[in-house]
Amino acid sequence: MQRGSKAMANRWGLIQSACNKWHGIVEKIAARPESGASVEDQGGGGGGNGTGGRTVSAASSSGVGAREERPMVPPRVEKLPAGAEKARAKGNAGMKELSDLRDANGNVLSAQTFTFRQLTAATRNFREECFIGEGGFGRVYKGRLDGGQVVAIKQLNRDGNQGNKEFLVEVLMLSLLHHQNLVNLVGYCADGEQRLLVYEYMPLGSLEDHLHDLPPDKEPLDWNTRMKIAAGAAKGLEYLHDKAQPPVIYRDFKSSNILLGDDFHPKLSDFGLAKLGPVGDKSHVSTRVMGTYGYCAPEYAMTGQLTVKSDVYSFGVVLLELITGRKAIDSTRPHGEQNLVSWARPLFNDRRKLPKMADPGLQGRYPMRGLYQALAVASMCIQSEAASRPLIADVVTALSYLASQIYDPNAIHASKKAGGDQRSRVSDSGRTLLKNDEAGSSGHKSDRDDSPREPPPGILNDRERMVAEAKMWGANLREKTRAAANAQGSLDSPTEIG
After folding, report:
1. What DSSP line would sit under 364-427, residue for residue?
2. 176 within a domain of the structure (yes/no)
3. How far apart are the first and last CA of the chain?
4. Which of 251, 341, 419, 488 could form a disulfide with 273 if both were Cys (CB 3.0 to 4.6 A apart)?
């Protein structure tokens, strides 16, 4: 582990030195000045969802992720002035050097390099039938490489709001970070002025595609799948925060950036905004405010001081989206319900109202106790004070337990007919749960010994107990599987390159 940590630290040194080296080049290319961190209308909302939401700075919207404004790249012209031509040439030279980056052991980084001709062939000249979405970076196409591998290819819009800096960050980050809940970067193209990123293809699209504006023939996600996605996405953040050294702050956690593979396996994507976190005795990093309105932590939006707890807040918003089926920002709703967090916070104060927060698309098919615990985790994550939010490792423990408790609505209904209140199983903590406790919003009250005899005034005082309880169950679950995990090797450990 010591050797792995040292190698990882050396790799992060590559990111810092490479970004510093090319920062001046990018600034010369981006002739227009920065527009600042003003909040401007998005004109239709993130993710193409018609929310009318806003981002911090102007943002493009797409099913693959909306982002805020970056320093603008000048519009294309037939001939650049001599100074700009020279800067562009240096930028291309910097991109060439990217292919020569090596890790601490001298091994070439894992991402492949592609020519523009190869990717043109893979997408059949970027035909419309291969088009699958558009984001702040540019258009995304489905393609097939020469070897038959199906990939997603993102092409930088040179007249858009992102440029070389985001491209470099994405290539460097995903070349060094490897985890089962992070999307895999297959390679990139920096051929002339072309900038393209090649990823593994995620056949089920984004989480946003399965939560919002569903067509009539599309089934909503069931409770088990939602908890599985939440736990997997949390594990991706845990890797960035706790396993990478120095830690990485994702800074763009939202439902459109969680891509889904087979069996709804979630992976975080779009790392152009990622920042290296504080090290040593530093408590935060100061940076220009970037992020999507509705997901941005309040202290970061106000001060520009970024910590891993900023990501935890964004995770809490996405967890609320999963539970409620609502968008983070939805201008089509009544005034008091347009901001998801603002709508949810008062409801946390009355436990009797918690079942009303569940997504109507679930049609009552969820475990009542699981709903309370998931809402308790979300409530802790969206605390206004960063210090009051849990560490992502604690969130992973709680949600891993909830995801392991498979809810079967058919079995629940059958048990009601057979006798309803029979005791069904014993949890890992030794407490007995009832069948009725696993039912959805049926109105039946639980008579468990560890439940209050009458509803408390809210979960503000109760949520810490519920989170602690879920963490304890999760810890017991981890203890049982530790031997097997040790035998197979931890998938959460940093990958040695070469």
Report:
1. T-S-HHHHHHHHHHHHHHT-SSGGGSPPHHHHHHHHHHHHHS---HHHHHHHHHHTSS-EEEE-
2. no
3. 16
4. 251
Examine residue 158 and state whether it is found in any structural domain, yes or no: no
Q: Which residues of the chain have pLDDT under 50?
A: 21-91, 93-94, 104, 421-460, 490-498
Cβ within 8 Å of residue 220, ≥6 positions away: 210, 214, 325, 359, 361, 362
Characterize the bridge pairing of strands 432-434 and 423-426: antiparallel
Cα distance between residue 30 and residue 35, in whole Å:
12
Per DSSP, the three-state class of 209 is: helix
Annotated binding-site residue numbers for ATP: 154
Select which of 103, 191, 209, 252 is catalytic.
Answer: 252
What is the C-alpha separation between 358 and 366, in angstroms, rounded? Answer: 9
State yes or no: is 213 an active-site residue.
no
| In-domain check, residue 109 | no
Please identify which residue in the block is written with the tokens 């969820």.
366
Domain of residue 454 covers 207-488
Task: Say what the pLDDT of residue 208 is.
Answer: 96
Strands 112-113 and 185-189, sheet pairing: parallel
Q: Is residue 126 included in any domain, yes or no?
A: no
CATH number of domain containing 375: 1.10.510.10
Ramachandran region, residue 485 (left: φ > 0; alpha: ψ -120 to 50; beta: rest): alpha
- Burial bucket for residue 335 (CB in 10 Å: 0-12, 13-18, 19+): exposed
- Global pTM? 0.70
pLDDT in tens, 225-272: 999 999 999 999 999 999 998 899 999 999 999 999 999 999 999 888
Q: CA-CA distance, 140 to 242, in Å (whole number)?
A: 31
Amino acid at 328: A
In the chain, the number of structural domains is 1
